[in-house]
């Protein structure tokens, strides 16, 4: 075979391989892009809110855009910032697919500053002991969500909508989940002492009460009588937990006790009404091999 024929054959072979590769590419199925975001958000002026975004493929970049930055802005991480009263849309785009979140921004209600616990603490302390609002019993009712958001959102608590049945019973606020406005983890010393603030306004068979809970379990029953501890480290943990109650003013008639068989620490706060004080109870409940902690606030003595 001559050199010329070899060159011709080699050229034809390359062309055939190229055509085969092109055919394979033509047969490849296009990647389906799926994108979902929060459909509606109601914010107060000054609020921040991180959009819930689900995208597939997961490594696909999502970009965000506000239709009116005078009403609401959005960061590269999908964090909204409510600027002024009004309506706007935030668009999320990935792989040619765009979804829209409708945002409504309203003015907060006027709130009585004297009804807070922890508001008189230093700004540094408030990074850990976030102020909590104690509603009057007249305010502590269903269909009053805007008022409660106005009361606690300015201090970092983030409203989280629950399932419809739970929504009828309570208002649920979460801590900032240990993230700053840019979605980065904040130092441990600047995290809230409790992860959830729950206003239970309509729990069947239960009086009005507020719950603060950490989103973790403890290896020991740290509300047990301190005389039962033999390790000084356990006493340190217990004291740190009780410091939360003391910070919010629950210091009167303080004692360890048992409630329905669970270990508890009980104390009262007479700030608003010495005759009908606030009752604070920090108690543990056994959950498997660990203990769940709750700090509960109610009205009146028991």
Q: What is the total domain count? A: 2
Kindly state the mean pLDDT as a whole number? 88
Question: Which spans have pLDDT < 50 for at least 5 consecutive residues?
Answer: none
Shape: globular
Fraction in helix? 10-25%
Q: What's the story with the biggest beta sheet?
A: 9 strands, antiparallel
Q: How large is the share of residues in beta strands?
A: 25-35%
Q: Count of helices?
A: 5
Structural Rg: 28 Å
The sequence of SSEs as H and E is: HEEEEEEEEEEHEHEHEEEEHEEEE
Distance between the termini: 107 Å
According to DSSP, the number of beta strands is: 20
Helix and strand content put the structural class at alpha+beta
Provide structural commentary:
The chain is an alpha+beta fold. It has two domains: 34-106, Immunoglobulin-like (Sandwich), CATH 2.60.40.1080; 116-299, no CATH class. It is 19% helix and 35% strand. The protein contains five helices and 20 strands. Strands 12, 13, 14, 15, 16, 17, 18, 19 and 20 form a nine-stranded antiparallel beta sheet that branches. Strands 2-9-8-5 form a four-stranded mixed beta sheet, with no helix packed on it. A three-stranded antiparallel beta sheet has the order 3-7-6, with no helix packed on it. β17 (252-259) and β18 form a beta hairpin. Pfam families: Big_2. This is Ig domain protein group 2 domain protein. InterPro entries: Big_2, Invasin/intimin_cell_adhesion. It comes from Porphyromonas asaccharolytica (strain ATCC 25260 / DSM 20707 / BCRC 10618 / CCUG 7834 / JCM 6326 / LMG 13178 / VPI 4198 / B440).
